[in-house]
UniProtKB/TrEMBL annotation:
It comes from the Bacteria. InterPro entries: PHP_dom, PHP_phosphatase, Pol/His_phosphatase_N, Pol/histidinol_Pase-like. It holds the Pfam family PHP. It comes from Faecalicatena fissicatena. SUPFAM superfamilies: PHP domain-like (SSF89550). Residues 5-79 form the Polymerase/histidinol phosphatase N-terminal domain. SMART domains: POLIIIAc. CDD domains: PHP_HisPPase_Ycdx_like (cd07437). This is Phosphatase. NCBIfam families: PRK09248.1.
Length: 241
């Protein structure tokens, strides 16, 4: 299986990443990608860019060389109501939106029911396209409910390669992601493989996520980002237009 657009990456604008837009795009093109989504951390993440950064992304070209670019955001899910940290109008103006739970923004570890409600309520927003790294055992949901709701709402669930890297700070990611894939297979829920690259060399790194998909015997037809056009055809925000 070949991934042709990375749906989760960060530039120096996120505050703890290490390359510019042009450097990330150049690396993506050199790796043979058709597209690259740049999804900077939203404002509640310490050290990242502010509201005006996202409001002004319309000025940035959506093509560099032969590479097509999507400019979006990795939103922070703030509570069990699925509240996120950019205005709806701003999120709708972007090309793609990932929503994730991060400790600095979500706060203390909540119970499984509360975490499940947080993800479900985020997925019910028609401007959130992807749930990012829902594999973290510190904030683990009910994966059966997660996969079923993602299928019902047209939300993509992310297999995050960075989460699966040995020695990472998220908990029980491999086992959780494997359970999620089995639930996705049961319901026909689509996933996307995101590198979560914070440095250019890590773009479209699927070393661990592809190993996981093989163990789950996960069907390629349920992977959304095997081509740029395929991803665009299944993004929730495209379906509502």
């Amino acid at each position: 299986m070949e991934i042709k657009i990375d749906t989760h990456t960060h530039t120096i604008a996120s505050g703890h990443a290490y390359n510019t837009i042009r450097e990330m795009a150049s690396m993506a093109e050199s790796k043979g990608l058709e597209g690259l989504a740049i999804t900077e951390h939203a404002p509640k993440m310490p050290g990242t860019c502010g509201l005006y950064y996202f409001q002004n992304l319309k000025v940035v070209p959506r093509k560099l060389g032969n590479l097509r670019l999507l400019f979006g955001v990795e939103l922070n899910i703030l509570d069990e109501n699925g509240t996120v940290d950019l205005p709806e109008e701003t999120i709708r103006s972007l090309d793609i939106a990932v929503a994730s739970i991060h400790p600095p923004c979500y706060g203390k570890t909540s119970g499984r029911e509360e975490n499940t409600r947080a993800y479900v309520n985020a997925m019910r927003k028609d401007y959130i396209d992807i749930i990012g790294h829902p594999d973290d055992g510190r904030y683990g949901p009910d994966y059966d409910i997660l996969a079923r709701t993602a299928r019902e709402t047209g939300t993509l669930l992310e297999i995050n390669n960075s989460s699966l890297r040995p020695g990472g700070f998220r908990e029980n990611t491999y086992g959780n992601a494997l359970e999620m894939l089995r639930c996705c297979k049961k319901y026909g829920t689509m996933v996307t493989l995101g590198s979560d690259a914070h440095v250019d060399v890590d773009i479209v790194n699927t070393e661990y996520s592809e190993r996981l998909l093989a163990e789950a015997d996960f069907p390629e037809e349920l992977v959304a980002n095997t081509s740029f056009d395929r991803l665009m055809s299944v993004l929730k925000r495209r379906a509502r237009k």
